[in-house]
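COURSE: Structural Biology Practicum
ASSIGNMENT: Worksheet 4, Part C
STUDENT ID: 0417
INSTRUCTIONS: Below are two proteins. For each, the amino acid sequence is given first, followed by its structure token string. Answer the questions at the end about the second protein only.

PROTEIN I
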Amino acid sequence: MKKITRILAIALTLVLVFSLASCAKVAQGSIRTGTWSENTFTNEWINIKVTLPDGWRALTAEELQQSVGAGEEIIVNNGTNQAALDVAKMRTAYDFSVMAEVGVPNAMLMYENLALSPLTKNLDESGYFDSMKTQFEAMADLGYSVLESDETVIAGEKYFVGKLSLMDGAAYQNYYFRKFDGAMIGVILTFTADTQADAESFISSITKAK
């Protein structure tokens, strides 16, 4: 449990930065979360379906809450005001957090409602990622650096991809963004050099729900 919590705390640190990229408290709006049936997740709103690979599992609510708390501690220790973080959390919906048996790769699906976010609601996916860069730079003690950006297709839809290294190259994160229906969809993938192929296989396995 401690190992899982630490890995996901690191991953959630930038997930929390993701939700800090804009500045307004927003309502749930049109966001609709998905459902699990055994090891298959479906969200018809964003039209995706995920069947977990062998050895992967979804985190329990308790494990995710522990990881969110650890991630918050990291980001507050790096200078983020707790009040600003609390507001950001009210804008953000987590849909799943899944991981391989050893902790990496792991992936999270989340949304930020942009309807009342004046600084970011008119940005495209690339601009949204650019708006996060100053927050990344504030995470200096975790060894974050932005590597490159790209585009890919997930379940038939085009996603912007922002790629980062963390802990001075000990691990990596890819941020897959798509703006849809007043929200920013984010799939955050954390992996190591040794598990990159498994991470990419997970992304490519995501299909349309309908």
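PROTEIN II
(use this one for the questions)
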Amino acid sequence: MKNDSPTCRASGSTDLHTILDFGLTPLADQLREEHELDEEQVRYPLRLVFCPESALVQTTEDVPPEVLYGNDYPYYTSVLPALVRHFTAAADSLLARKPLGSDSLVIEAASNDGYQLQVFHDLGIPVLGIDPAQGPAAAANSKGIETLCRFFDAEVAAELHAQGRRADLITGNNVLNLLQDLPDFMRAIDLLLAPDGLICIEVPYVVDTIDQTAFDNVFHQNTTYWSATSLDRAFRRYGFYVNHVERIPTFGGSLRVYIEREERQTHAALEILEEEQERGVDTFAFYAAFAERVESLKRRLRLLIDDLRADEKRIIAYGAAGGMATTLLSYLDLDEGDLEYAVDLSPHKHGRYTSGAALRIEPVELLVEDRPDYALLLAWNHADEILAQQDAYRAMGGQFIVPIPAPRVA
């Protein structure tokens, strides 16, 4: 179905085609206190569309950034060991590619609590984080990692440029997919990047999202869903070149791209662009069957949970406060009581209630203490690590329901 009202965030085209419409959906990470549960929760449209001109997949609704990333934003990357290990290794890899020293500067967009800048900082390399969430930014500053509590945009970039601060390396992990104003972001990196500087961006890979039927990657914070093709087309419009591309496993499948002002594409970059061309990633046909597969997965997962509940099995949710969990639970539309509560690793979330489903969030230790029969693993992209961590619960007979890419019990 063609949708003529919004415009593409990359090309400005109005020739957009709807892939999947989730309807009115609660915002992720909008955790509530118990006294707030009687208040009606605000929901926003959530629709996924495709632009043939840019090959970009995107959502159509802009939620005000101050609503999405306000004072109470509860996401702290450093509490997730697997991500800390991943981004530490990524920093080491960057240092091998781009030697840096005490006279260099590393700037990270959406730096959260300083989880990656810490690596550079500990080596004596000057760093600057820019993040709009007060809690994570304060946590970074408390560790000595200079962080501005600001949005990474052309305004703050102009101020830093006027101060003579130019970055040898700009990093952005899972930030490009959050942008509502791509041209503003491009102006910001143009102002801040040194002439021979390097940009390294990690972003969820839309091809993996489609191949895995990972519909829970679609939520309001994630405004754009990138392929190597759409990245290449978007950055070329602004005089930057995607010179190298790596596929990485984070968030169910992501891309790490290296971008510079001079074009010198590696064999790896050319290879993935060619592969996407062969698969038709820049055509609507590649995405057309996604909605049908999502509906099929939903039916299978609902049936599994209904059967377990009919057998009087107790089910809770694991990792239930992020965007993926919010979309999955909202789209499943489970009956009240199907899930008793949620557990989550982050202490910043304990004692509060999830967005939409209103599940009370408890420490993960409750799994062993309470011994529910099943845990619906909403953080399925960390399945291997979580299953290993919870071997005591599983030894007691507890089992995990892994919903994606196909429902299974582990």
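ANSWER KEY EXCERPT:
Q1: The mean pLDDT is 91.
Q2: The first strand starts at residue 2 and ends at 3.
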